[in-house]
Amino acid sequence: MKNIKIKMFLILCIVILLSSCKRSNGILTPISPYKYQVEYCGNKIIISKITNTGDTTSTIWKKRNGEYFDENNHLKMSLKNSNYSYQQKVNNKNAELLTTILKENDSLYSSTTICLRKSYIEDMGVAVYYDKSYRIKKIQAGVLYEFSNK
């Protein structure tokens, strides 16, 4: 009889412990340090990076011979696969940047620029996805995101 009472007590304790566990089904959402705004002005595309504090930095890409180039005359968007590197100052230091332009599928292209330092990738950089008409569909920036439970 004592064995049955002990077993019943243990089962009751287990049920109470299991029922007291609460599950959290919160969704983690990224807190981005900035957002992008894209403006189309004739043969120019203005891409503005806006921080959470409202600071804005912009770059202008101009169309020439059916492709888009930045202010430093570096190819940024094309409908042909390309891969090239160039030297540029990044955060006041000389760095090598590598740009890769790929045809992802029949209607989507990507242009990815990464920053190389001493034979390793220091910064993921920026990836721009666009269509045949050079309309930007998505911009991905290689930054670390903080996730918070809202």
Tell me the layout of helices and strands:
Blueprint (H helix, E strand, L loop, with lengths): L1 H19 L7 E4 L2 E8 L2 E8 L4 E9 L2 E3 L5 E3 L4 E9 L2 E13 L2 E10 L2 E11 L5 E6 L4 E4 L1
Antiparallel strand pairs: 1-12, 2-3, 3-4, 4-5, 5-6, 7-8, 8-9, 9-10, 10-11
Radius of gyration: 26 Å
Based on CA inertia axes, which overall geometry fits?
Answer: elongated
- Count up the helices: 1
Would you list the SSEs in sequence order as H and E?
HEEEEEEEEEEEE
> What is the helix content?
10-25%
Give the strand order of the largest sheet, numbering strands 1, 2, ... along the chain. 2-3-4-5-6
Report what the structure shows.
It is a single chain. The protein is mostly beta strands and 150 residues long. The chain has one domain (27-149). The protein is built from one helix and twelve strands. It has a five-stranded antiparallel beta sheet, with no helix packed on it. A five-stranded antiparallel beta sheet has the order 7-8-9-10-11, with no helix packed on it. Strands 1-12 form a two-stranded antiparallel sheet.
Task: Jot down its keywords.
single chain, about 150 residues, mainly beta, 1 helix, about 15% helix, about 60% strand, disordered C terminus
